[in-house]
Write a structure and sequence with these properties.
alpha/beta, globular, 10 strands, Spore Coat Polysaccharide Biosynthesis Protein SpsA, Chain A
Length: 279
C-alpha cells in the first residue's frame, strides 16, 4: 500500500531543494544574530552541499556569527559548489581533507578513512585544533530560532563537552565492554567542546577490535571519547534527534523553541520543508 503522506513529504522536499539550488546565488546575505565566540567545523561533499549551504545560513541567522565556519571537504566538491559555500559569508571557508587532517593518525584510522566516508569524518574529528569553544556540526543539521541558546551555553559550558543525544544506541557492539556502555548514546552529528576530547581509550579499543570498521564504528569511537571526557547530553527537547515522524507528512518536532534538528537520512526530506529558515 502506497503511503501518500510520506510520498508527498518526499516530493515537497525534493522540489524545495531544487529551488534552493537554483536561487542560492541570488539570495540576500544572512543577517547574523550576533557574534558567537566559537569556531565551527563541518564535513561534507558534493552530494550534500545544498544541505551544507542551508545549514550554514540557518546557523548564521539563529545561532550567530562564529569566528570561523570551516567546511572540510571529502574531496568531491566541485569548484562551483566550493565557491557557492564560500560566498555565503566571509567567515566560511572550504578546506581540503588533506590539509585538515593530521598526518600521524593511527594506521587503523587511516585505513578506515581510505575506504569509508565516516572514516574520513572521524579523521577530521581527531584533527580539529581546539583553541577555545568549538562546535562540530553535520551538514544535515538545521538551526531554528531557539539556537540563540548556544550563546549562553558556550559561556557556561566551555570545558564540559556536550553532545546530541541519539534516539537509540546506533553503536558498534564490538567496541563496547558491556550493555551499560550504551546508556545515553552519543550522536556524532553535533558536538560542543572547549578542549580536545580524550580519545585514548577509544583508540585502544579500536586497535584491539577484530574485523573491519563499519558504519557505526565512527560514532561509537566518538561515544567512547565523549564519555571518557565527562561529556553531557544536550537537552533533547531543544537539540532534537527523533525519527518517529518518518512516514508522515508533518514535522512533529520542528518549532521556534528548538535550537536544531538533525535530519538523518530517514527524515532528510523534512529538512527542506523549512525554507523560511535559510532562504
Amino acid at each position: 500500500m502506497i503511503n501518500i503522506p510520506y510520498r508527498a513529504a518526499t516530493f515537497v522536499g525534493q522540489r524545495n531543494r531544487r529551488r534552493f539550488v537554483r536561487r542560492l546565488a541570488t539570495l540576500p546575505s544572512v543577517s547574523a544574530a550576533g557574534e558567537l565566540p566559537v569556531t565551527v567545523y563541518s564535513f561534507s561533499g558534493e552530494r550534500d552541499w545544498p544541505e551544507q549551504a542551508a545549514s550554514v545560513r540557518s546557523f548564521l541567522r539563529f545561532a550567530g556569527l562564529p569566528k570561523r565556519f570551516v567546511v572540510v571537504s571529502d574531496g568531491s566538491h566541485s569548484e562551483e559548489s566550493r565557491r557557492q559555500l564560500e560566498r555565503l559569508h566571509p567567515c566560511v571557508s572550504v578546506a581540503r581533507l588533506e590539509a585538515a587532517v593530521k598526518p600521524n593518525l593511527p594506521e587503523r584510522i587511516q585505513q578506515y578513512a581510505a575506504r569509508h566516508g565516516l572514516g574520513k569524518k572521524l579523521s577530521v574529528l581527531l584533527s580539529i585544533p581546539v583553541e577555545g569553544p568549538t562546535i562540530y556540526s553535520d551538514s544535515d543539521i538545521l538551526f531554528f530560532p531557539g539556537a540563540h541558546a548556544l550563546a549562553s551555553l558556550l559561556q557556561s559550558q566551555t570545558y564540559t563537552p556536550r553532545y546530541l543525544l541519539d534516539c537509540w544506541p546506533s553503536l558498534d557492539a564490538r567496541l563496547l565492554a558491556d550493555e551499560n556502555e550504551k546508556v545515553l548514546p552519543v550522536n556524532s552529528g553535533f558536538l560542543i567542546f572547549g578542549r580536545s576530547l580524550d580519545w585514548s581509550n577509544a583508540l585502544e579499543r579500536l586497535a584491539q577490535m577484530a574485523g573491519d570498521c563499519g558504519f557505526f564504528t565512527e560514532q561509537t569511537l566518538v561515544h567512547l571519547a565523549m564519555k571518557a571526557s565527562a561529556g553531557e547530553p544536550l537537552p533533547a527537547d531543544q537539540f532534537v534527534l527523533r525519527a518517529e515522524d518518518q512516514f508522515v507528512f508533518s514535522d512533529y518536532y520542528a518549532g521556534k523553541g528548538i535550537a536544531l534538528r538533525h535530519y538523518i537520512s530517514s527524515i532528510r526530506s523534512k529538512f527542506w520543508h523549512h525554507t523560511e529558515l535559510f532562504n
